[in-house]
From TrEMBL:
SMART domains found in the cross-reference section: DSPc (SM00195)
One term of GO molecular function: MAP kinase tyrosine phosphatase activity
PANTHER family: DUAL SPECIFICITY PROTEIN PHOSPHATASE, DUAL SPECIFICITY PROTEIN PHOSPHATASE MPK3
Biological-process GO terms, alphabetical: negative regulation of MAPK cascade
Record-given protein name: protein-tyrosine-phosphatase
Annotated region described as Disordered, given as residue ranges: 120-149
GO cellular component, one term: cytoplasm
UniProt record similarity statement: Belongs to the protein-tyrosine phosphatase family. Non-receptor class dual specificity subfamily.
Pfam family, any one: DSPc
Annotated Tyrosine specific protein phosphatases domain residues: 40-95
EC number from the UniProt entry: 3.1.3.48
Enzyme type, top EC level: hydrolase
Length: 149
């Protein structure tokens, strides 16, 4: 892992999120939405920062596997993309992103959790649609932060 050089600087807020620790082998069989629940602290952290107009940097040593996997997970969660769509979109922005092994397996579980959640919400609403998430609910009318990209 890489060092967090600005942890003592109050302008920066860190979340240590060990994406490699989310392993399907640790899943309890009876646990519903285990992958979504495991990723939720990172999703909440990112959502909060973006809602406040702040920037977010997701990093690991190379930015290809762990950080890339979390980036794909967030695209699946927030932009309502499938796993394949999220990887394609992420690679357009950072070509070295390459979720593999247990990271990719976990993303498959997250994809299934998100699809099931959408279906559960559609059934609850009774409108027949399977879109249980309002893609614009948090950012509608808000300008995206300028994060130096």
């Amino acid at each position: 892992a890489s060092e967090n050089f600005f942890e003592d600087n109050p302008r920066f807020e860190y979340l240590r999120f060990f994406v490699s620790d989310i392993r399907p082998s640790l899943r309890r069989k009876e646990e519903d939405f285990w992958a979504l629940n495991a990723y939720q602290p990172a999703f909440d952290f990112i959502d909060s920062a973006l809602r406040d107009g702040r920037c977010v940097l997701v990093h690991c040593l190379a930015g290809a596997h762990r950080a890339g996997s979390l980036g794909c997970a967030y695209l699946m969660y927030r932009a309502d993309l499938s796993l394949d769509e999220s990887i394609k979109k992420a690679k357009m922005l950072r070509p070295i992103i390459n979720p593999f092994g247990g990271l990719l397996e976990t993303l498959h579980y997250l994809d299934a959790d998100l699809k099931r959640r959408r279906n559960d919400r559609a059934e609850t609403r009774g409108d027949g649609s399977n879109d249980g998430y309002d893609k614009n609910k948090d950012g509608e009318g808000k300008e995206e932060p300028n994060c130096g990209t």
